[in-house]
Amino acid sequence: MLSAVAIAFLALPLVGLALRSPWGRFGEILTSASTSAALRVSLFASLAALAASTVLGVPLAWTLARIDLPGKRLLRALVTLPLVLPPVVGGVALLLAFGRRGLIGMPLADATGLTIPFTFAAVALAATFVSMPLIVIATEAGLRSIDHRLEDAAATLGASPGYVLRRITLPLAGPSILAGLALCWARALGEFGATITFAGNFPGKTQTLPLAVYLALETDPARAYLLSFILLIVAIVVLMAVRGRTAGST
Question: Does residue 18 fall inside a structural domain?
Fold first, then answer.
């Protein structure tokens, strides 16, 4: 009985969203200039965040999984902090680091004249900040689950470290890495709080799809419902794909 209540509690808002979405205006809303611009910003920013998170997060996951470091528990806490930090607080922290008077932003502006806040770069940075922990956590879990005896046996038989990495480590950790990539991208696509704080809400420049939903709630609620449902479908597809891959790897 309680399980049914829990399922209803989670499902009813989503059902309501589906029922209230103006499906007759689907083509009009999806192809409008404002939606196309927000979708383009969201797509490019989420892909940039995914690329940055992969380049930085996978080596960090390797370090956490394979190298004994002092203060590793503190490092893991730091990695997971953006997942529990209020997104607006994350945006404020990014401003203090990369803003015009920030720890990095000020010397960068003095040296090059470049400023990051309220630009597309700020959107990508905010998305990276909140989404990278997902790929680090998933990749570390995949690396830690590998039976090290397989790698040791290959090395004993003369396999080079590169060969062991390509033929044993990555294939075994692959499902976890792919799951982390999918979750990272989906989280970056849906980022809101840090983005609006650090990058603002400028249509065609920093306005992502979630920010467009927020703005549309005041002027065109039906458009907000439909865009919200599109983001919901993307999240469901990603979660089902991740679940399928992780279930298939066990």
Answer: no
